[in-house]
TrEMBL record, chain B:
Transmembrane segments: none annotated. It holds the Pfam family Fer4_6. Gene3D superfamilies: 3.30.70.20. Residues 4-34, 78-107 form the 4Fe-4S ferredoxin-type domain. InterPro entries: 4Fe4S_Fe-S-bd, 4Fe4S_Fe_S_CS, ET_IronSulfur_Cluster-Binding. SUPFAM superfamilies: 4Fe-4S ferredoxins. One of its GO terms (molecular function) is metal ion binding. The keyword Cell membrane does not apply. This is Formate dehydrogenase beta subunit.
Length: 335, 198
């Protein structure tokens, strides 16, 4: 019995000891609760949403966004990718045009000038064109300044002068966007009739147009190349205007990530737009004899119209006849 | 020279907003601009944390990289400052900043934001240290007086730490060791590309 009592005592002690060992961490654990066990973790929040947002007690509720590291990607785009895209597009286009001009030269009027002219663009059309064009050139220069000015122009003119110029360029960029947008809308409305692609364009493209190819495929008022320019202006202009207004009215439509995206769209479309317009300016001036008159005086030589827009000339001749070098008010009014 | 940093110990921050008030008062920051703010995450839920955030004075700062007029500069203490005379208020630094630090005095329609304003780490701007012009544009220059940013100095729980990055990291590490937990140095990975392992 004694041994049994000893055994029981030993067992009780053993149990107590075991209990002590097992239970020992429990009271310590109760004292040292880990409050971060359920706490929000920065890395986890960033992985979930790529941004951390909370509540602020100051009036500026937008400051509730604590952290959004994607600014780094936008920075990479702005400082590296965009400069490559813009540089390749614009320098590349200039290079292509220089090579083209040196090999092909100005596309001459093969049949010479007839001395008779026909109205191609009336005063209203030319006003809209030049309003849009003037705005575009200023917008392009001031826009390129934001992307390329710091590496290219700032070292030449110094900090103060560059800052002053950039400030005015920024105001010009913002305010001239309004007449530019109006111009794009008016261009859309006034020339859409002649710019719907049709079968004639397929033929024109096959024969390389009048500038790459050496013959003169027939075309209505606008050939396939001009239609391309039209749609670049309308669609590209639409994109730059829309994305530009998102940037000009911050937080009306979107937060920071939306503005980063808007800036990406705005700048890529804009540099490609500039490259396309350089080609447009080339063909409209030194690239083709007799082309500038269409937007200059508004009247083109009948032989020019016959070579480049034969079907349009036929239409016009059927309606009114040529101008005989004299501007006919009735024709101008009818346009 | 020291590499100055901010560190907010989120496990200590009680969202009293003293840092915000101290900053606004010290620099006479105009109405509508907050160089520092306290953000509460998971407000009212278990695991709620508050973090006081301002410009983190990043290593290789994104704002400085994207600025079209190059108006930013980094001091010998690695504090990121800018010149309001050069700033054109384009908003690009605001797109690039991971912490929402750049502030503008106006709403910003038509691109008329005004000159950008942000935390200067109480180090003023390019004007002469302690000059009237510097105070009007950027606020007090405590660093030039040998003092640290007031937000951290005022912090009642010493949650917000400012000073040499290595020293404040050491303080934070010791805290974490002693109390046994820590939710990390918020924003450090993004700002300095390194964090305090705890």
């Amino acid at each position: 019995m004694v041994s049994f009592a000893k055994f029981v005592r030993a067992a009780v002690w053993a149990c107590a000891l075991l209990l002590l060992i097992v239970a020992a961490p429990a009271p310590v654990g109760a004292q040292q609760v880990n409050p971060t066990a359920s706490a929000v973790k920065e890395r986890q929040l960033l992985q979930e949403l790529n941004r951390i947002q909370g509540r602020v007690s100051i009036p500026d509720q937008r400051s509730g966004v604590l952290e959004q590291p994607q600014g780094r990607e936008w920075r990479e785009f702005h400082n590296v990718t965009l400069r490559w895209i813009g540089g390749v597009a614009i320098i590349g286009m200039l290079a292509v045009l220089v090579i083209f001009y040196l090999t092909r030269g100005m596309v001459r009027l093969e049949s010479g000038r007839s001395g008779r002219t026909i109205v191609r663009f009336n005063t209203y059309e030319r006003f809209v064109h030049w309003m849009t064009a003037t705005c575009f050139i200023i917008l392009a220069i001031s826009g390129l300044n934001i992307t390329f000015g710091r590496p290219l122009l700032l070292p030449l003119i110094g900090f103060e002068a560059f800052s002053e110029w950039s400030l005015w360029a920024k105001y010009a960029h913002n305010y001239l966007s309004f007449p530019f947008t109006i111009g794009v809308v008016l261009i859309l409305l006034m020339w859409i009739g002649g710019n719907i692609p049709n079968k004639v364009d397929v033929e024109w493209m096959k024969r390389g147009g009048g500038i790459v190819g050496h013959d003169h495929p027939p075309a209505y008022r606008f050939n396939a190349g001009q239609k391309a320019i039209y749609w670049i202006v309308v669609i590209g202009g639409g994109f730059v205007a829309a994305s530009g207004y998102v940037l000009m009215f911050p937080f009306y439509t979107t937060g920071i990530e939306g503005m980063q995206l808007a800036q990406i769209v705005h700048s890529i479309v804009a540099v490609l737009f500039v490259a396309a317009m350089i080609a447009h300016i080339y063909i409209g001036t030194i690239g083709m004899e007799g082309a500038f008159e269409a937007m200059g005086s508004g009247e083109v030589d009948v032989n020019w119209a016959r070579e480049h827009h034969s079907l349009w000339l036929d239409e016009q001749m059927a309606r009114t006849g040529p101008n005989d070098g004299q501007p006919q008010p009735a024709t101008a009014a009818a346009e | 020279m020291a590499r100055m940093k901010f560190l907010c110990d989120a496990d200590r921050c009680i969202e009293c907003n003293a840092c915000v008030t101290a900053c606004k008062n010290e620099h006479e920051v105009p109405w509508g601009i907050n160089r520092r703010r306290v953000v509460t995450i998971n407000d009212g839920k278990p695991g709620e944390r508050s973090i006081s955030m301002a410009c983190m004075h990043c290593t290789d700062a994104p704002c400085a990289a994207v600025c079209p007029v190059n108006c930013f500069y980094t001091t010998a203490d690695a504090v990121v400052l800018h010149s309001k005379d050069l700033c054109i208020g384009c908003g690009y630094c605001f797109y690039a900043c991971p912490f929402g630090a750049p502030q503008y005095p106006k709403v910003g329609n038509f691109g008329s934001r005004g000159k950008m304003d942000k935390c200067t780490y109480c180090a003023g701007g390019p004007e002469a240290d302690g000059s009237k012009e510097e105070y009007e544009k950027y606020g007090a220059n405590r660093l030039a007086e040998g003092k640290l940013p007031l937000c951290a100095e005022m912090c009642s729980t010493k949650s917000l730490l400012a000073g040499d990055g290595e020293i404040i990291a050491q303080i934070y590490k010791e805290r974490v060791m002693k109390r046994g937990y820590g939710s990390g140095a918020w924003g450090w990975k993004t700002a300095y590309r390194e964090t305090i392992e705890s």
